[in-house]
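Quick start: read one record
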Amino acid sequence: MHETSVSLARDTHMALPTFIVIGAVKAGTTSLYHYLAQHPDIRMSQLNWPRFFHVDGQGPDFDVLAAKYGSTYRFESEERFKLMCPPKIPRSVADYESLWEPYPEEKARGEISPTYLYDPAVPSRIRKRLPNAKLIAILRNPVARAYSHYVMDVRNGWENLNDFAEALEREPSKTDDFWWGKRHYIRHGFYVNTLRRFSKQFDSKQIRVFLYDDYQASPHEMLRELFRYLGVDPSFKVDMSMRYNKGLIPVDTYAIRFIRLRHPVKHLLLSLFPKRLVLSLRQRIIEKQSLIGAPSMTREIEQRLIETFRDDVLCLQDLLKRDLSTLLQPRDPMSQE
């Protein structure tokens, strides 16, 4: 009885989220954050991708991971962790709570951290803090997702290989646990085991899975369904004129180098301007100084990736009770965003 009371108290705290979008990476979650923030009944975290549950209690134990998988990727994993979980992300519950300002009209409170889907430590941590939370996953065709992830890493300067095939060959393949190093193009496309980790911790009614293809084809319809799931007004019409995090590979220019620059003075200067204006300007610079799209994936690589993901897609099909055969068919032209 005492434990139940504590759990309910945690979950009904006015400053904690009532829902979390847990993934997937490169499945439109950046745009979704801005779309959800428009709804008058929803209060989104002030920081997109807060990543709190990656570090709640403790971060990854790199000694354990290195002992299990070898030390080859140890350095790059620690560096990646520092990059992805910088000091600005909340390390305590109090800091996490502070991401939501008091808002009397809210009916739902949420955050989006698309890497939660892949970290085996996250489901139990969310369960401990937020046992009644609603969880949302948006899953993208794993082949298209892999290539879009590669394009993003090249664009941001995280990937130094300009050949997608070579990058795939260099990706570690036998890491069951979430490894923070480079190249998660293939590993982030296996969905079944990651979803099962959450289903072991939460009731099936607390997990809702959407498909990125539906999101692309009928975004307003998908958002209406999502709003109904969250218990907010489903008739609210979102302004989708702004697209975020588009998949382009920029030419190496001074403007692009400035965008990629990580320096406190730069962040101080940008903080003087409205965030929406900064994001819009950043995207316009990238689009203006980018190659005309990214080079297409070869049919040979596409087919190889289809076979890599085939068993997982078939299992996902059974799990979701939905025909996913289109995910096992070549896409022409290939989606790269």
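The mean pLDDT is 84.
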